[in-house]
Fold these 2 entries.
Entry 1:
Amino acid sequence: MFERIWEAHLVDEEPGQPALLYIDLHLVHEVTSAQAFDGLRLAGRPVRRPDLTLAVMDHNVPTWAGRLPITDTIALKQIQVLARNCEEFGITLYDLHSPRQGIVHVIGPDLGRTQPGLTIVCGDSHTSTHGAFGALAFGIGTSEVEHVLATQCLLQRRPRTMEIRVDGQLPYGVAAKDVILAIIGKIGTDGATGYVVEYTGEAIRSLSMEGRMTVCNMSIEAGARAGMVAPDAKTFAYLEGRPHAPQGRDFERAVAGWERLATDAGAAYDRLVELDASALAPQVTWGTNPGMVVPVTGRVPDPAAMPTEADRRAAERALEYMGLTPGTAIQDVRIDRVFIGSCTNGRLEDLRAAAAVMRGRQVHPSVRALVVPGSQEVKRRAEAEGLDTVFREAGAEWREAGCSMCLGMNPDILQPGERCASTSNRNFEGRQGKGGRTHLVSPSMAAAAATAGHFVDVRRITDD
Amino acid sequence: MDPFVKHAGTALPLDRVNVDTDQIIPKQFLKRVERTGFGEFLFFDWRYLDSGQPNPEFELNRPGYAGASILIAGRNFGCGSSREHAPWALLDYGFRALIAPSFADIFFNNCFQNGILPVILHESEVAELLARAKAQPGYRLGVDLDRCVVEDEQGFSATFAVDPFRRHCLLHGLDDIGLTLQREEKIRAYEQVVSSR
C-alpha cells in the first residue's frame, strides 16, 4: 500500500536525490504556520494550491463555554495572524466561530477531506492519525510547511517499511489506546524511527475507524514517519455522506479505486513486529515518555532492572519527576486530574467509552475531570446522545473543542506536582504544565480513575 | 540560511537519552510568530529554577559550558513534536552542530532546514565525546562537513555519513524552495496528468 501511494505521487526523482512528492492535502494550524507565511511574503510567493490547503485554530484556543475574549495576548496574536494569513492567501479557515472547528486531526476525517490514497501533511507530528484511512500522512516542520505552501510538493527520502501485525482478539476492556501503548512499550520511543508502519492483523481489522486513528496517531511516539491501515468496508462506510467525500456515483468510483490500494497478501516489509492482542491488558504509563508503560495490574518498575545504564538513569530521572517509588502497585497511585480528549482520544467513540464508565457514578471528590471533544461536530453529536449530561451529572466539566490540556498551550494546564490520568499522547516532563505528572491511558481507564480517585482496572469496574 | 562548511566550538555534554522537543523549548514559548528570539527559552524548565534563577545543576549552567555551540547527547534526541521552534531555539542560543547516536525524524529534517548540522556517530564514539566533554569543561570540538569528520585536538577523530543532497544544500546554504521551484514544469505536468484522470 505504501509503495502504491508513494509511486502515484512522484513528481520527479533523480538518482542520489530525495524524491519530489506531490501533496494532496495540507492542513495548517496557528502554532506552526506564521513563520511559513512570513517566508512566502518575503519572497513574494503565492500559495500554489489554496484549494488543497485547509486551516484551523486548535492548539492554543480556550475551551471554556463562550471562550471569547481570548485573554492570553500572545495566543490571541497567533490566532489573528492565522486569520489574516488565510485571508491574504485565500485559504479556507475553520475559525472559532465555525461549527466545524476542532482539532486539525479530528476535523480532516469529520469533513471527509481525509481519504484513502492521499498524501497528507501538517506542521504537527500527530498527522500520522490520517493514516488510519490508508493515506500517507506525516508531520513536517515550519520550513517544510512553507515549502508545501509554495510548491505543493515535498522533498522526501523513501522511508523503510515496517509491518506491525496484531493478531488475536482484543479482550473485553482493552482499547486501541492499549494496543498502541503496548506496541511503543515493546519497541521503544525510537523503535520505528525511519520507517512507515503498516498495522495489520485481526485485532487491527476489528478496530473501528476511531480506534485505527488512535493507533496511527501515536505512531510518531514510536518514532515512525507515518502509520497506516489498509482501507476496507469500515473506511468506506465512515466516509460515505461526509461533506467533502465524493458523492453518489463518484463515491462508488472512488471506492473502486480505494479497494485497489489494500496491501497484497505477502507484501514485503523491511521489518516485522508481532503482538498478540489476546494477551493485552489495559495500559498505564509510569514515566516521562510513552514507552515507559506497564499493564494496570503491574507495578512501578525498578530502574535497577533496566537493560542499559542510560535507561537506568532515564528511569531514575523519570521516577523522581513523577514522584513514584519502584514497586508501587499502579492501582495504588492516586490522581488529582483527569483529561479526556485530544487528537488521540477526543472522538465520539472515545467519549462514549468514557461516558459508559461514568454513567451513574461520581467523579471522586479529590479529582477534577475535564472532557474536551475533539471537534465542534463531535461535541454536537455527543450532546445529541446525551453524553454531555452523563459527564456533567458525574461531576466532570464539558468543554468546547480544542487541543486543550494535551499540550497545555491554552489555559487548561496542570499545576506543579498535580497527577493526571490523560487520554492524550505524550507524558513528557512539563507537557501538561510545568511540574505536572501525566499518565497516559485509554478513555475508559481515565473515566474509571476519575471515579475511583486512583488507577483501577476498568475490566473490573464495568463487570459490576 | 547560512552555509555550514566547518565549525569549531565548545561542546556541551547532555548525557541524556530521548531528549524531547518539549524539553528543548517548552510550549509556553511557542506563541511567538517570528523565527528568532527563542534562544533565551532553550531548555527552559531544566535551565531555570522556579525562582527564575539559573539551575546550577543543569549542564549548560555549569562553569566552562556557557556559549557552547556543539551539543553532544544520547540517542533519539529531538523526539516528540514537529515544532521547528526546537532547532530555532538551539540556533538562536548559538548551537551549530549536534552529535548523537540517533535523532528523531522530523527534528532531524528541521535542523537541516536551519543550517544546523545533526551528526550521527556510533554509540561508543558519542560515549567517548561525552566523557571528554564532562572531564574538561570548555572542551573544544571541530565538525567539518566538507570532510565529514568530527575531531578534537587530543587525537579524537570520527567520520560520519550524511545525505549527499542535504550536505550539498548545507555547504552552499541553499534554500529547498528555490530548488523545487526550478522544477515547476514537472510539477505542472504532474498536476495535468492527475486532473485528467
Note: The longest helix of chain A spans residues 73-89.
Entry 2:
Amino acid sequence: MVYVLLAVVIVCVVVFAALATSRRTPASNDSVADFQRHLSALSPEARRHTVENYPVVTSSTEETEELDDGA
Amino acid sequence: MARDLAIDLGTANTLVYMKGRGIVLNEPSVIALNRQTGEVLATGHEAWHMIGRTPGYIVAVRPLRGGAITDFDVTERMIRLLLQRVGVSRFTRPKVVICVPSAITEVERRAVTDAARRAGAADAQLIEQPMAAAIGAQLPIDEPVGNMVIDIGGGTSETAVISLGGIVALEAVRVGSFDIDNAIQNYVRREHGIAIGERTAEEIKVAIGSAAQTPDEVEAEVSGRDLMMGLPKTVVLTPEEIRYAIDDVVSQIVQSVVRCLAKAPAELAQDFLTRGMYLVGGGGLLRGLAERIETETQVPVRMSQMPLEAVVLGAGHCIENYDALKRMFMGQRR
C-alpha cells in the first residue's frame, strides 16, 4: 500500500515538474516566436505556393465580355 | 473530412478557394427566385443572364449591396448552395474564411458569419478585403515597408497601407463599379430620354467607359426604351459623354485614395514613391483609372497581375496557413 502511494506521489511530482518546466518560457518569447511565424507565413516564398500551384477557373468577367452584344 | 474554404463574397462576383485545390468557383453573386414560392431557380451565371429579363413570378437579385448583406435569408441560401456545389455536405463542415469590406458594421459582420454558419460552416472567420488583396497580389507585406493597395469592387472601394503584416492606414467608401453603371443609366435616361437596363449599362462601361482620355476611343450604339413614346430607340454615345457621366463616382474613388495617403505615416511616403500603389478588383480595370489616380496623387499606380482573383487568393493563403495567420482575422488581433 505504501509503495502504491509512493508511486502515485512520484508520478504527480514528475507531471507537475514537467508542466512547470514547459510554462517557464517567458510569455514575451512566445509572442516573438508567434509574430515571426506570422511574418514567415506571409513571406513571398510561402505565398508563391498558394498563388502559383493551383489553377484558376475562368473568370466570370471574361465570360461576360464574350457575351457582350456590342452595346 | 471537409476541405476548408476561403470565400470572396463580393457584391459583383463570388469566388471560392478550396484548401489544397485552389480556386474552384468563380461566378456572379446573383440568385434567381420564384417570387411566389421562394424557391431558388438559378444561381451564378445562369441567374446573371436572367437580370432584367424575367417574367413576373421570377426575380433575379444580388443579395449584397455595398459589400453588405441586404437580404439575410437569400444570402444564407446562396452560401448554402455554393458550399453544396463545392462538395460540402451535412456531415462535412469546413472552416471558412470570408473576405468582407473593412467598413462593414458589427451587425453586418455578424450577419455574414451567421449566414455562413447556418449554411454549413463549422467556423467562420472574416478578413478585410484590402488585406487579403495585398496577400494575394504578392506585395512584400512581411517587410517593414509601406505597401499600398487599392481594391475597387462592385460596391466598395478600399485603399489600405500595409506594413509588417498589419494595416497601417485604411480608407473605404461605399462606392464601386455598380455606382458607375448606375451613373451611366441615369445619364442616358436624363440626356437621351431612354431607359436602359443594368446589364446594358455595364456593357457600355466595358465597351467605351474610361476615367481619363485614352488613345483608341470609339463610339457605341445603345438601344433602350424611349421614355416618351415607349418604343425601342437607338442612340450613339461617345466616350467623352461616359467620362462626364461617371466623373462624380470616379472622383469619390480618387479622393478616398488621396485621404488614405494623407493618413499614412510620413516615414512610408518614400516607399509609395518608389514602390507605387497596386490596383486590384474588377473596378480597377476601368480604362484610364490608373492614369487618373497617378495624375492626381503623383504616385505611380500598377495593376496587380490577377486583379479579379487577388482577394480570394489572399484569403486562400490564410486558410492554407490557418494557425500561423490567425491574427489576420477580424476580431482576432491582439
Note: Residues 273 and 299 of chain B are 6 Å apart (CA to CA).
